[in-house]
Write a structure and sequence with these properties.
Elements lengths: L15 H14 L4 E6 L2 H14 L5 E5 L9 H11 L4 E5 L2 H13 L4 H5 L8 H8 L1 H7 L3 E6 L1 H10 L1 H4 L4 E4 L4 H15 L2 H6 L2 H15 L6 H17 L3 H14 L4 H13 L3 H14 L4 H13 L3 H14 L4 H13 L3 H14 L4 H13 L3 H12 L8 H21 L12 H15 L3
Parallel strand pairs: 1-4, 1-5, 2-3, 3-4
Helix pairs in contact: 10-13, 12-13, 13-14, 14-15, 15-16, 16-17, 17-18, 18-19, 19-20, 19-21, 20-21, 21-22, 21-23, 22-23, 23-24
């Protein structure tokens, strides 16, 4: 029986020392223009630079680092200026990835989809890649140094597909993947960071972008295991969420669920984002699956109830709120939303009871005060309703918070109708409101209560 052929190179990872020795030989032989690519992490790149400086003392070794997008993508000009000011035989170039991230952000602002952004058959080419292609001969003829690009794996993909003319002139490409222990340490750090929500909020947009670059470099590591990949994808999803890149974050959670279909955090967070995108049915399905894993999750029960309420399935929503309250009795948001659902079912006394329970827990919860006032008004208990609205109007609204302003204006409208109803008007529904009649009341309250 013939045996199947063995591919001895399958899954064989480059030996770091052998790769470094090969890089060193290439640099030692180089004279004049040359083009080398080193696939590595930024930290590994710094170590390589220091080793080369030590091992090639007769070579003038320079470094050109970028921590932000290159102006107009003109890398040739930046290299030319650097070599004119400080001549070098070998010039290491770091940070090219920042220009690619900037281009991705630009495409998002133009409304490109995530598929269009991350596919390699893109509508356009990053300016820095255009510069590399167009200035290829000038790089060769005017720059008398060996250029060594230190880049993460995904940048190599950009170069292959979007700057092929330039990349074809390479003298060599060298790979320095993270070893298993360092890879595990890096992903463990990411795992710990995921639990620090305040830390994400404290990061600037630029800092989050840098972290996204670091994560993408780790995700491209061939030795990455399932646990490590899922942890990195979770951190990436959280960073994208804080960047308001909701669709991209949803895609990350989808990747996690392909690895671990029963990951509660991925299901729950994905449901939240789908709900934000208005995909209520899809969000509902995520919460359902999350509750199969953690049946007593008051967060998932509460959010499932909210979806049902938006779909006008009020009785089912109330059942979810009750389950959430059984787990967490002081969850006043669930009590409030239960009150709103009861109001929609015309169970006004029960709704008022819910709002009172909310206010016993959180006395300044404006939503509950307005909700109670509305229910009292429908029941014809106008004086009590006015007292609720007055409590809201006694506090200045946050001018920067739309919800605060909306609740304030609802209290103005509610009080106006309650006062007029006391004079003999019939109880009203929202459909019967004549906002034209209320304009003088609104203007009066606005003048007396709003900040100029």
């Amino acid at each position: 029986m013939s045996q199947p052929a063995i591919d001895w190179d399958a899954d064989l990872q480059p030996d770091p020392q052998e790769e470094y020795d090969a890089l060193l030989r290439a640099l030692r032989r180089s004279a004049g223009f040359g083009l080398l690519f080193v696939q590595c992490t930024p930290a590994a790149g710094m170590q390589i630079i220091e080793r080369v400086k030590t091992d090639l003392p007769r070579k003038r070794v320079g470094v050109l680092s970028f921590d932000q997008p290159i102006a107009e993508g003109n890398l040739f000009l930046q290299v030319q200026i650097r070599l004119t000011e400080t001549p070098a035989d070998v010039l290491f170039i770091q940070g090219l990835e920042h220009s690619l991230l900037d281009y991705e952000d630009t495409k998002r602002s133009l409304g490109w989809t995530e598929q269009e952004i991350h596919a390699y058959s893109w509508k356009g080419v990053p300016p820095v890649m255009v510069n590399l292609n167009q200035q290829r001969e000038n790089f060769r003829d005017q720059l008398h140094a060996t250029l060594v690009f230190l880049v993460p794996p995904y940048v190599v993909k950009y170069l292959i597909h979007r700057a092929p003319d330039f990349f074809d002139w390479r003298s060599g490409i060298f790979e320095f993947p993270l070893d298993k222990s360092k890879l595990q340490s890096a992903t463990l750090a990411a795992y710990i960071q995921q639990r620090d929500e305040a830390g994400f909020k404290a990061l600037s947009l630029e800092e989050r972008q840098v972290k996204l670059l670091d994560i993408q470099a780790l995700l491209d590591e061939p030795e990455l295991g399932s646990d490590e990949k899922a942890n990195l994808l979770l951190e990436k999803a959280l960073l994208l969420t804080h960047n308001n890149e909701t669709k991209a974050a949803v895609a990350c959670y989808g990747q996690i669920l392909k690895i671990y279909p029963n990951d509660y955090i991925a299901l729950y967070n994905r449901g939240n984002l789908l709900s934000k995108l208005g995909l209520k049915r899809e969000a509902y399905n995520c919460y359902e699956k999350a509750l199969e894993i953690e049946p007593e999750s008051h967060e998932a029960l509460y959010n499932k109830g909210n979806i049902l309420a938006e779909l006008e399935q009020y009785e089912a929503a109330i059942a979810c709120y009750d389950k959430a309250l059984k787990v967490k009795p002081d969850k006043y948001e669930a009590l409030h939303n239960k009150g709103c659902a009861l109001h929609e079912l015309n169970q006004f006394e029960a709704a008022i009871n819910c709002f009172n329970q909310v206010l016993a827990i959180k006395s300044d919860y404006i939503r509950a005060i307005v909700g109670k006032g509305n229910a009292l008004c429908v029941l014809g208990r106008y004086q009590e309703a006015v007292e609720c609205y007055d409590e809201v109007l006694s506090k200045k609204p946050d001018q920067q918070d739309n919800e605060s302003l909306n609740l304030y204006n609802m209290a103005i409208v509610g009080k106006g109708y309650a006062l007029r109803a006391k004079e003999g008007r019939q109880p009203f529904t929202i459909e019967q409101i004549d906002f034209g009649d209320l304009l003088p009341i609104l203007e009066s309250f606005s003048k007396n209560n709003h900040q100029p």
